[in-house]
Structures are given as structure tokens and as C-alpha cells.
Design brief:
By secondary structure, the chain is an alpha/beta fold. The protein is built from nine helices and eleven strands. It folds into two domains: 106 residues, Four Helix Bundle (Hemerythrin (Met), subunit A), CATH 1.20.120.420; 168 residues, Translation initiation factor eif-2b, domain 2 (Rossmann fold, 3-Layer(aba) Sandwich). InterPro entries: IF-2B-related, IF_2B-like_C, M1Pi_N, NagB/RpiA_transferase-like.
């Protein structure tokens, strides 16, 4: 299960960073069924497998921080037996998963009031927290028009559009990324998710920076929604992921090169607000 989860994270088969953190935490439960002679052997195996999960996508702050938290809780417990260590790991996993799920839910609840009835908004890529916030707003009787950027080259915006298309009170329109500037003047606000915020920089799926820059140019406020655990300090070093050229072009690139970064960097001074489980910060 751990190896399969590492591969899934590397291939970005799971689109939500919060979901990635939960899946990675649960993957460690595979160690519960293995035999270990000593506590030290178990803790080495935990550290090794947790490192593998973190390395699968070191850009995910929530993945890195939750894995480190699980390892720390187990090693700090100083268990006297392997069974005690396994029990402590099981408790640590449950605790971390509950924290991630609760933080995501509260962030969506805090963001819901920003979705006003009759609003036209634009969103980018696929953020499960933004979608949950929209669902909360709709449950309160709000009607929305939503422009969704397709998010090339993996077209994750299509998944967002399909989810929104099933909500009666949402009129969703899928547009190509380069059409953002054409439709932004019709919008009241832009909403994005976040991979992480580090030292005044929002790192999120590529395309977020040009969307925020264009929104700033036409005076449309930008709000980012996500767990406070994704706002990290200098101890976390963001590492971009450069994806396969085959996601951009199917035929061989002859006479030219292809770059395919998964994330870009947006200065937080381009944002109007950041909404987390702990509240709202305005810039």
C-alpha cells in the first residue's frame, strides 16, 4: 500500500493536497501488519517509509508536515514494545487525519460567506476546499455564476466544471486558460486553493500567478482558501515539480525543449484575502 501511494502521489493521481496528506497518513497503517523484532526496527521502518511518502511530492506542505508529525509522535512516546509503538502510530495517524479533515471543513465554512448571492466568480484548477465552500454557500440559498479555467496541461479544471455542473444553483462555464483576461471584467472575485504559503509567497498549481496578476490589473479581488497548516515558515523549503513533456505535447519535441512546471509562485500582496480554518487575513 505504501509503494502504491508513493506512485499515486508522484503521478498526481490525487488532485487535492489535503486528500494526499490523508492518503499518505493512512498508507503508513500498512506497517501495522508487518513483523518487527524491536521498537527501534519499527521506528526505522516508519521513518524510512515516511521519508518515501514525503519525497513523492515535497512541494505539498500538508503532506510533509503531517508525515513529520506522525513520526515525531511515535518516537517521542518512547514505547517499550513493538505493540505499544504500533498503537501509538495508529493514534497518531487518526489524530493527524482528523486535524486535516477538520481544518479543511472549517476553512470552507469560513469562506462560504464570501460567496454572495448572484456573484460571478472565477476559479482555477481543482480545489476541494473551494468546492466545499461553494457547496456550503449554495446550501444557504446562494446562486452563483462560475468561470472555471481548464488548467492545462492536465485539464483539472474540467473536473471542477463537472462537479459544479451537477449543482442546480451554479451556472458553470469552462474556459481556456488564456481567456481569463477576457472574462475577468465580468467577475466579482477570483477564488483559488493553495498548495502552501511560504514567506509571503503563494505556491499553487501553475497558472495561478498569471490569473492573479490579470485580476489585479482589472481590479478583481483574489481570495485564496485552504488549511492554516499550509501556511509554513522558513523551515519548509518549497520544491517545484517539473512534469513530463508528454503532458504538453504527444509527439517528440524535435529541435526545441518543453518545460512543464506543476506550480508557480504568486506574491501574497496580489491577494485580497486568505481564508483558513483559523479565520480570514486581508492584504
Amino acid at each position: 500500500m505504501i509503494d502504491e501511494t508513493v506512485e499515486e502521489i508522484q503521478e498526481m493521481q490525487t488532485h487535492s493536497s489535503s486528500t494526499v496528506a490523508v492518503k499518505a497518513a493512512r498508507a503508513l497503517e500498512d506497517l501495522l501488519s508487518r513483523d518487527f523484532e524491536t521498537v527501534e526496527e519499527f521506528e526505522r521502518a516508519l521513518d524510512h517509509n515516511s521519508n518515501a511518502l514525503r519525497r513523492a511530492n515535497p512541494s505539498h506542505a500538508s503532506l510533509v508536515t503531517t508525515q513529520r508529525a506522525i513520526v515525531k509522535m511515535v518516537t517521542d512516546a518512547e514505547s517499550e514494545s513493538v505493540e505499544q509503538a504500533k498503537e501509538r502510530m495508529s493514534q497518531a495517524i487518526d489524530s493527524v487525519v482528523e486535524q486535516v479533515v477538520t481544518a479543511k471543513r472549517r476553512a470552507a465554512e469560513n469562506a462560504a460567506p464570501q460567496f454572495e448571492d448572484g456573484m460571478t466568480l472565477m476559479t482555477h484548477d481543482y480545489s476541494s476546499t473551494v468546492l466545499e465552500a461553494i457547496e456550503n454557500a449554495v446550501a444557504d440559498g446562494v446562486y452563483l455564476d462560475v468561470y472555471v479555467l481548464e488548467a492545462r496541461p492536465r485539464y483539472l479544471g474540467r473536473k471542477t466544471a463537472r462537479v459544479l455542473g451537477e449543482i442546480d444553483q451554479v451556472d458553470a462555464t469552462l474556459i481556456i486558460d488564456s481567456a481569463a483576461g477576457h472574462y475577468l471584467p465580468e467577475c466579482d472575485r477570483v477564488f483559488t486553493g493553495m498548495d502552501c504559503i511560504v514567506d509571503g509567497t503563494l505556491y499553487n498549481r501553475v497558472g495561478t500567478f498569471p490569473l492573479a496578476a490579470t485580476a489585479n490589473e482589472v481590479d478583481v479581488p483574489v481570495t485564496t482558501v485552504g488549511s492554516s497548516a499550509k501556511i509554513v515558515g522558513e523551515a519548509f523549503r518549497f520544491e517545484n515539480d517539473f512534469r513530463s513533456a508528454s503532458e504538453v505535447i504527444r509527439e517528440p519535441a524535435e529541435g526545441f525543449s518543453v518545460e512543464n512546471p506543476a506550480y508557480d509562485a504568486t506574491p501574497t500582496d496580489m491577494l485580497d484575502s486568505v481564508v483558513t480554518d483559523e479565520g480570514t487575513w486581508e492584504y
